[in-house]
Structure formats: structure tokens, C-alpha cells
Specification:
With about 250 residues, this protein is α/β, with parallel strands linked by helices. The chain has a domain at about 75-180 and about 195-245: Glutaredoxin, CATH 3.40.30. Helix content is about 40%, strand content about 15%. It has helices at about 5-10, 40-50, 55-70, 100-105, 120-130, 145-155, 170-175, 185-190, 195-200, 235-245; strands at about 85-90, 95, 105-110, 140-145, 165, 180, 205-210, 210-215, 220-225. The strands form 3 sheets. The chain has a 5-stranded mixed sheet. A two-stranded antiparallel sheet has the order 1-2. A two-stranded antiparallel ribbon has the order 6-7. The longest helix is centred in the first third of the chain and has 16 residues, at about 55-70. It starts with a helix and ends with a helix.
């Protein structure tokens, strides 16, 4: 399958600026059941994208095709590799290191684009729904956005896990996970009122490729999910299984 074929299947939507959280699950949902599959929620966002902005879709498909052709994210840590150390501020300004996390249990590191991305909102909300089922594992969300917006994202998703600021996307860059938005996409985002310079506290229009790394207490990657298409994320049941295996 070539890059054009891959890109042709992607859907996109000019993201909504609404900041209302996802509604609560029905009260009769059994506690031992997984919530709705994440892929289904993300597909609804994707279908709405296709209906609302064909121009954005065209720009996005060209961009994603280039990422696929360049094998973006391929060099990120693989299963069996050590996870490189980091030190980042959390949503309250406290410094958090990978070593500190691993002293408490396995780490689940989730790279996302930010509060302005509705697909990230859906993903973070879904993770919040299973946060009590991760056992000893410590989930941390990572993005370039500064504390003000990290707190906003945490509140919107009703998460209790920390949101870390990867300043200037430096850690994502070191892992091979960061990409520069091209001029076409940047123009669409500006026209929609999204200012990544403000969200990131300055710097370039750089966003991470959404990714999940499950890291055991020894600092070794036991599972990973890396996908240049930000509409596809690690499914909840796969994450829970990976955490169980790493514990």
C-alpha cells in the first residue's frame, strides 16, 4: 500500500473550539465493563471532519501522506529498549522525572497534541474512564502546551493523572516523535483561532505524533503505540493488557 492509498482513507475535521467535557456515561453501565471503544469515538470525530471541511481534509491528507512516506515515528523507542529519562514540569509546576515515576510503579506515557485537538480530548477522556483500572501503573500525559492549558485539558477530561509540559517539544524531538505542521495546516489552524505559539509558550508549530509507551519498573519499554495519524490511538483494552503484562 502506497502513501496515497493510506492517506486516502483518512478523515479530518476542523476541530471545534468548544471546551465542554464529554457527558458522563449512562448510570446503568456496569463498573466491570470497558467503556465504548476509543476507535468508535474517534471515528465519529473523523466522519464529522469529512462533512465539514474538504479543504482541510485535502491539506491533511497531503501532510499525512508525507509522514507515512517518511516513516515518521519509526525511530521512537521500541519494545525492549530503555525509555530515555526526562524531567518535566506538571500541570501545577512540580518537576517530574521518569525515575520518580518508576519508583512508584510501571509508567504509561501518553503523548498528545493538546487541549485544542478534539481527538486528544476524546482520547484523554477515555483514559480518565479507566484510570482506576491501571493498578500500580502511573499514567502521565505529555504535550508541549504550557501549564495553563495542561490544567484545562486535565479538567475537561476529568482526569486525576498528571499532565506534563514537554517544553518546546524537546523530549518528543529527541524520541523522533515531533513533526512541524506545514504552511497549509498552520493556515487552517490560524483561521480557526488556534494559536499554537500561545499554547506552547512560544516556539515553532511543532506537535508530537500521538504515542503510548508502557514502561516497566526497570525502565524498559514493554508496549508501544505510535501512529502519525492522530485519529488512531491505542485501544483501551490493549492498554490495560499491556499494563498487566508490565506490572
Amino acid at each position: 500500500m502506497n502513501a496515497a492509498d493510506v492517506a486516502g482513507g483518512f478523515y479530518a475535521r476542523v476541530e471545534s473550539m468548544e471546551d465542554s467535557p464529554i457527558p458522563d456515561a449512562p448510570p446503568d453501565r456496569r463498573a466491570d465493563m470497558l467503556p465504548e471503544p476509543l476507535a468508535s469515538r474517534l471515528m465519529r470525530e473523523a466522519e464529522a471532519t469529512r462533512a465539514r471541511s474538504p479543504g482541510y481534509i485535502a491539506a491533511l491528507e497531503r501532510f499525512v501522506a508525507r509522514l507515512v512516506a517518511a516513516k515518521a515515528g519509526e525511530t521512537a523507542p521500541r519494545v525492549g529498549d530503555p525509555m530515555p529519562p526526562f524531567l518535566m514540569p506538571d500541570h501545577d509546576g512540580h518537576l517530574v522525572s521518569l525515575d520518580t515515576i518508576l519508583r512508584q510503579g510501571p509508567a504509561v506515557l501518553v503523548f498528545h497534541r493538546g487541549h485544542w485537538c478534539p481527538f486528544c480530548k476524546v482520547s484523554m477522556t477515555a483514559l480518565a474512564e479507566i484510570q482506576d483500572r491501571l493498578g500500580p501503573a502511573r499514567l502521565h500525559a505529555i504535550s508541549p502546551q504550557i501549564a495553563q492549558y495542561a490544567r484545562q485539558m486535565r479538567d475537561l477530561s476529568r482526569a486525576r493523572f498528571p499532565f506534563l509540559t514537554d517544553i518546546d517539544a524537546g523530549y518528543a524531538l529527541s524520541l523522533g516523535l515531533a513533526v512541524w505542521l506545514d504552511d497549509d495546516l498552520a493556515r487552517f489552524h490560524r483561521n480557526a483561532g488556534r494559536d499554537l505559539h500561545a499554547y506552547h509558550g512560544g516556539g515553532q508549530w511543532i506537535v508530537p505524533i500521538p504515542a503510548v509507551f508502557v514502561v516497566d519498573r526497570a525502565g524498559i519499554v514493554r508496549s508501544r503505540h505510535v501512529d502519525p495519524d492522530y485519529r488512531r490511538r491505542m485501544e483501551l483494552d490493549a492498554l490495560l493488557a499491556a499494563v498487566t503484562a508490565a506490572a
